[in-house]
Amino acid sequence: MKSQQKYPQKFSLEFFPPRTEKGMDKLKTVIDELGTLKPEYMSVTYGAGGTTQEKTLETVRYIQEKTPYEAAPHLTCIGASEESVTELLDTYEALGIKRIVALRGDLPSGMMDPGEFKYASDLVKFIKDQRGDKFHIEVAAYPETHPQARNCDVGIKWFKHKVDQGADSAITQYFFNFDSYCYFIDNCERNGIDLPIIPGIMPITNYENLIRFSEGCGAEVPRWLKCRLESFEDDKESLLAFGKDVVQELSQKLLDAGAPGIHFYSMNSVEPTLEITRNLTFK
Fold first, then answer.
1. At residue 42, does pLDDT exceed 80?
2. 149 near 191, Cβ under 8 Å?
3. Bridge partner residues of 102 (DSSP)
4. CA nearest 60: which of 12, 119, 100, 23?
């Protein structure tokens, strides 16, 4: 963990672009309330193949122009062209955006051609070649191994290649096993990878949704945690209280070990992110 302990600990948030005006009004309230936590930036997701591009841009523009916070748009490259990515980079540069989360993304249903970028590493290289240091580039990291990698060694090789193309820092897929993050950092250090790798944290608010999300992205929900969450059945209040305690304990343990901050997947809700983060101690 020594490679991570030298970086200052910071806090950031992630939102998804609302599809309706009502959803946007709600998100504005969420941004105001979570903004009291003083996040370093607020990232905004981007649908497969750019399917939420318009809504992502609307949300990014609101954060960047109407709030005191820094917006960090996600940019997925599957199905994109160099021309379309260049146009977006021009737009973001004009808005004063300083940070981009560069991702491969998933092919939308029915789309066969991945476009001019096959991997996130291609996108990172393209941004660096085009813009130099205009943007701080965040990439994804997978403590429990990329779901499409054969094993940990292949996964770390892919990650190193992506970092070598010009990534400045990384945000992990969410996880619930503290040791998986520590092992991943140790593996990065053995392979000469040295950049801030911020743990991505998912609050627990709904058992069914958590299992579905986790199966889709390859995140492991430990058996003990599944069993405990299942035991609450329809007792929503107890599930929320237990989930808050689990995530808060994990987050503080990561910070105490020297992780360079926490990135919360807020799910566009104020709680439990607000309560958990208020109770964390950053160095």
1. yes
2. no
3. 75
4. 100
